[in-house]
Amino acid sequence: MIKIYSSHIITADVEVIINPVTTDFSHLGEVGRLLITTAGEKLILEQEKIGLIPVGDFAITTAGNLWAKKVFHVCVFDHEKQRPITYEEFEDSWRRVLYWCRANHFNTVAAPMIGSGLNHWDSNRIKDIMLSVAGDFDDLHLFIFKGEKHHENTSTRK
Prior knowledge:
31% of the residues lie in helices and 23% in strands. By secondary structure, it is α/β, with parallel strands linked by helices. α3 (87-103) packs parallel to α4.
C-alpha cells in the first residue's frame, strides 16, 4: 500500500523514516534538521560513529526520540565533489532500502520526496521512481511526504 501525504514526516507512526543526507551526514533541508533535533543526541552520536556514506548508499541508526524504530540515512549528494545522486542511482538505492526493510520485517516506511530540494530534481519523476519501485514491495506500507498540509490519498496500491 502506498499513500502520499503533505504533512510532517517527523510524527509518522512508522517503523522506518528515510532521511536524505550528504556523504558527511549534512542534512539537506528542514525535514533533516527537524528530524535530528527531535531524535536527539543518541542519533547524532551514531552518525558520528558511521562517518561517511558513499552516494547511493545508506546507513541505519536508531530513531532516538522519534516514534520510528530506525532511521535510514540515504546519501543523495556528495558534499566534497558537489555531485548529486543520479536518477538511476536513486532508483537502485531506493530498491535496496525497501528490500532491506522487507528482509528485516520492517513493514511501515515513511519517506520525504527525496532529492526534489537540493538536487533540484523533477518531483514528478522522483514520485514515479518511488512508486514504481515500491510497486514491487506490495507487502510494505509506504508513506511519502511532500509538504506540510495533509492531503487526501492520491495513490494507493494493494
